[in-house]
Design brief:
single chain; alpha+beta; seven-stranded parallel β-sheet; six-stranded antiparallel β-sheet; 8 helices
């Protein structure tokens, strides 16, 4: 692939000649000014600050040099800033954004000056505002399944220059049967558009025509290469709108459920997923280098997993790019914890950022399921505040309106709403109890923690079934009760085992049991690696192995057995 895909912060919509503003900045926290390395958050060691206490307000500052170009626009892009950002260029307001996980940009053409410029970013991140915050700790320090907070800039910042008329967005709708792709293109202004689609350096599809702000068209593909598990076959796309050139890509693949079966390109596939929290030792939300994304995916695949549930966080698009290249299935999730599910006044801020997440990631072939909400049975610290069902149903409905091409789990592991494409559930109980509950499904008994809410008249409606969290066993750690897990202070797991042979044997028999159920479309093991005090990963937080090579091989072989639903 063209090198621009590996260099740009967002490979699905990349331009050449961008200027990366990562590196040394200043940050003011309280009255103290620190040097900080962006894009690492100030709570992280890699940032050079390492302040773990609450940072509810901070101010970033950076000077940079530009050469202004005639008849062009210059845009300032942020990958993600947590949570509310006010951006000023040379003391003048460029714009504001709320939402800690999605990108935003401002046209700063008229604010820039030739030579030196000053960029200021004022940030507020206060979890008391009840905004989506995922696994960020609401207490002073980490505890239970809540981890170090991420304040401010945690993804790349860059400048891009475009012509006056420029491309705004592109969406791909691949058709595996007709071997073609429908494209929707949005632009600013009117100009001639040309599109060239390549595979392996060879042109396999083309289009040209006039585009007036927006349009759609279909391009036949002369050669067929399916995107599939372990085969990240990607078609490169070059769009030229007037003088604006954008590089993108897509995968030729289809995803859907047919009855209880998940189909990838029309073939039955059991989803062998592992929970990935997206935390990195020393960097919190941001790895020391982006090679870590590739390494985590390779680690998952080496253990026999064909995908991951990207948990309580909107992952960096470079992780998704690696997933696309490796043919790795993922659930696209949101940092829904922290929201007031009982308060419809909070629905607008939730939907606003979730819309941005879906639109950002629409073109990634690796995303096979949307999962906007997790365990919404009420507020974690106040059980009297029960969820509002209209909140749940609104999120599902908007997700399907934004993207009708993918399945959507309305709520993972806790009280489904009135409509979901997948009836999933969580179970962290021991083998015998899990087997009993799974056998109960055959009798129409869904005895899983908070799968449906009493009194709302909601029941299983024949949807595909997925065990989207199980396991959570701490090797040599401390066991805690399910109901107490979020209060645990020390290293813990939902269960514990100190003998390696017993741990591996239990994994093998659990995987074998789950793969034997003809009604189960997939599972997700908790979790790939330890995260701070939650030490129930298959490897340590550092990604160093906990087990021998033979034990890791046995885990891989257990996951790789053919599932009953695939036969």
């Amino acid at each position: 692939m063209n090198s621009i895909y590996n260099l740009h912060p967002n490979a699905v919509f990349a331009r050449e000649g961008f200027i990366l503003l990562d590196g040394e900045w200043e940050i003011k926290i309280g009255r103290k000014i620190h040097n900080i390395k962006v894009p690492f958050c100030p709570e992280s060691e890699f940032s050079g600050v390492g302040k773990k206490d609450f940072i509810r307000n901070c101010i970033y500052r950076k000077t940079f040099n530009v050469h202004k170009q005639e008849n062009c626009r210059t845009f300032l892009h942020f990958g993600a800033v947590n949570y509310a950002a006010q951006v000023l260029v040379n003391g003048k307001l460029a714009g504001t954004h709320e939402g800690g996980y999605t990108p935003f940009s401002f046209d700063v053409t008229d604010l820039l000056q030739e030579g030196n410029n000053c960029l200021t970013v004022k940030v507020r991140n206060d979890l008391r505002d009840k905004v989506p915050s995922g696994k960020q700790s609401p207490k002073k320090y980490s505890f239970g399944c809540f981890y170090t907070r991420t304040t401010g800039i945690w993804q790349s910042v860059w400048l891009e220059t475009t012509p006056i008329n420029y491309l705004r967005a592109v969406r791909f709708y691949p058709d595996t049967e007709k071997v073609q792709v429908k494209m929707e293109v949005e632009a600013e202004g009117k100009a001639d558009l040309s599109v060239q689609i390549k595979y392996g350096g060879k042109t396999v599809g083309e289009y040209s025509g006039e585009l007036n702000w927006n349009g759609e068209f279909t391009i036949p593909l002369s050669e067929k290469y399916l995107w599939s598990i372990g085969q990240g076959n990607l078609y490169e796309v070059v769009l030229n709108f007037g003088g604006d050139t954008v590089y993108s890509y897509f995968g030729l693949r289809s995803v859907k459920y047919e009855g209880l079966n998940f189909l990838l390109n029309g073939e039955k596939v059991f989803q062998r997923l592992v929970l990935d929290q997206g935390y990195y030792e020393g960097g919190v939300y941001t790895p020391e280098n982006y090679e870590q994304f590739k390494e985590d995916i390779c680690l998952s695949r080496s253990l026999g997993f064909n995908g991951a549930r990207l948990h309580q966080k909107v992952f960096d698009p470079r992780y998704l790019f690696e997933s696309d290249k490796q043919g790795f299935l993922v659930w696209g999730e949101y940092a829904s914890w922290g929201s007031d599910y009982h308060n419809l006044d909070k629905l607008s801020c939730f939907l606003g950022e979730w819309r941005e997440a879906v639109e950002r990631d629409f073109n990634h072939p690796s995303i096979i399921t949307w999962c906007p909400l997790n365990e919404t049975w009420g507020e974690l610290d106040n059980s009297a505040k029960s969820r509002d069902l209209r909140f749940i149903d609104s999120v599902y409905s908007m997700t399907k309106a934004l993207d009708p091409t993918r399945p959507c789990v309305d709520v993972s592991g806790g009280q489904h709403g009135t409509k979901t494409d997948v009836a999933d559930f969580h179970c962290y109980e021991k083998y015998d109890t899990l087997e009993e509950r799974m056998n109960g499904i055959r009798k129409g008994i869904f005895n899983f923690y908070n799968m449906y809410k009493d009194g709302e008249g909601i029941a299983y409606g024949g949807e595909p079934l997925n065990l989207s969290e199980f396991g959570g066993v701490s090797f040599g750690g401390v066991q805690t009760k399910l109901s107490d897990c979020v209060m645990e202070q020390s290293a813990w797991g939902y269960d514990t085992e100190s003998d390696e042979e017993l741990f591996i044997s239990n994994y093998e028999k659990t995987a074998k049991m789950l793969l034997s159920f003809e009604f189960l479309s997939g599972y997700c093991y908790t979790q790939l690696y330890d995260v701070e005090q939650e030490q129930n990963g298959l490897v340590y937080y550092s990604r160093k192995p906990k087990f021998s090579e033979n034990s890791m091989r046995r885990i891989c072989e257990a996951n790789s057995e053919k599932a009953e639903i695939e036969k």
